[in-house]
Amino acid sequence: MFVFEKANHNFRKPILTLGFILVTMLTLFFDNVDSYAFTPKKEFGSSLFVSFFFNSSLSEWFTNAIYLYMFADNIEDVVGHFYFFLLFLFFGILANLTYFLFHMNSIVPIIGTSGVISGILGMYFVFFPNVKSTMVFERASFRDVPILISLSIWILIQSYFYIVEFHYHTRSTYAGQVVAFLTGVTIAHFFVRNKFLDRLEQNIRLSTFINKTVLCPSCNKPIPAKKYGRFYCSSCNTNFFFDRHGKKFL
Fold first, then answer.
1. How far is CA 157 from CA 75, 101, 114, 154, in A?
2. Beta carbons within 8 Å of 139's beta carbon, 6+ residues apart
3. Handedness of CA 231, 232, 233, 236 (dihedral sign)
4. Can you give the pTM of this predicted structure?
5. Please, are residues 197 and 203 in contact by the beta-carbon 8 Å criterion?
6. pLDDT greater than 80 at residue 234
7. Neighbour tally for 140: CB within 10 Å
8. For the chain, which domains are there?
9. Which of 64, 70, 122, 250 could tie 5 with a disulfide, CB 3.0–4.6 Å?
10. CB atoms inside a 10 Å sphere around CB 32
11. What are phi and psi of 150, to 5 degrees?
12. Beta strands in 103-237, from DSSP E residues, in sequence order
């Protein structure tokens, strides 16, 4: 199953998102990629911190790059470059540690960005629940599905795969993906409840509009506005900011 986000415009340049995509592409040309893979039974080393920058094949990189391009740029836009960098590393390390906890004696190495992407999807799930998406299955596709629904189905499928593979004692990274997703959801809720994002409003210089409207970042509904600052969209229950540079923050 694939989930494709429909246009969700960001206003901060996704420098790190594009940088991470480029780095993961360059690692495809490394020799002996397995030496960078994380293996639980071996001693912890640099692989704990770098294995999620590598991919096992071009097709895997391409899939992960698409997900990063569609979803990570909006998370970077909301939390800023610095926190996005920390979150990227955190989710990657968390996925590796989860694999270690579930398979301590495993000699099967793992690489890939799936754990990072799962954490980012978890945050997207909270920040942009009403953004429309397209769900693609093997023989069917569904359009204009709210992210809240499509990602709920996605994480249920990942959980099912993990349960099946756990039953058959198969080593997999599905547990890391599920844990990273749920952690991303938790972190995003923490940001919202502790008004972390509201602090961005302190840097907004209030000014006066003249017959202006702003578009909701989730549903693109035009909303009349007289000042820069916080706005609320009654159609999709989205709160966002709009500053003098046109930047929107959920």
1. 23, 21, 14, 5
2. none
3. positive
4. 0.75
5. no
6. yes
7. 7
8. 2-193 (1.20.1540.10), 200-249 (no CATH)
9. 70
10. 7
11. -65, -40
12. 132-136, 141-146, 208-215, 222-227, 229-233
Q: How confident is the model at residue 16 (pLDDT cuts 50, 70, 90)?
A: very high
Q: Fill in the DSSP letter of residue 6.
A: P
Average pLDDT over residues 157-182: 76
Cβ neighbours around 101 below 10 Å, total: 12
- Name the strand (E) or helix (H) holding 176: helix 174-193
DSSP assignment of 16-42 equals: HHHHHHHHHHHGGG-S-GGGGSB-TTS
Cα separation, 35 vs 111, whole angstroms: 10
More confident residue, 73 or 239: 73
